[in-house]
Amino acid sequence: LVDTKASKVFIEKEIVKCIDLVKNGVHGVLFVVSVKNRFTPEEAGVLDSLQLLFGANSLNYVVVVFTSGDALEGSGITLEEYLNDCPPQLQWPFLLLSHDNGVWNGLAPGEYLTSPDQRIRLEMERDCNLILTDTQYSRMLWHSNTTGDVDQRCFLCLQPDGKLGYI
Question: What pTM value is reported for the model?
């Protein structure tokens, strides 16, 4: 969805093609943002495009994953402070997942979270890549395909309305 060299019309046509390939329709969108960089106009455009293509409620089905949380820790900025400086598209209320009966603030390499029904699993691999897996069908849904350092952390945020409660 973010390709500064492609036209908006081209990207929208590609999205429609992808939707045609999905047998049961789109159930959600995974949106990955690095906190090392400021939220760009192109990234804001992705969220605007989702609303344009799928309607105003489409953001209710977006899972936002913030990577490189260690960069926030190093700068002394909290995730909430980071979000306050972001454009309105990222300022809707977030709920951080809890982990080990406390506030969850990231995934370390080798750690993972699963949905309440154990069907969806988000794991940070040893090489700091994120992988989203459908455990029911034993298939990978998404892989970040990046390189990183072993001290990297990521934040997984959900909207509190419960529509994304499966992650």
Answer: 0.52
pLDDT tens per residue, range 8-54? 788 778 777 777 776 666 667 777 777 777 777 777 777 777 787 77
CB 166 within 8 A of CB 158: no
Sheet with 95-96: strands ordered across: 29-34, 62-67, 154-158, 95-96
CA angle 24, 46, 83 (to 5 degrees): 110
Distance CA 10, CA 2 (A): 11
Query: What are phi and psi for residue 91, nearest 5 degrees?
Result: -100, 10
Quick one: residue 76, left, alpha or beta (phi over 0 = left, psi -120 to 50 = alpha)?
left
Q: Is the dihedral of CA 17, 159, 77, 108 positive or negative?
A: negative
Q: What is the C-alpha separation between 106 and 20, in angstroms, rounded?
A: 34
Given a cut of 80, is residue 75 above it in pLDDT? yes
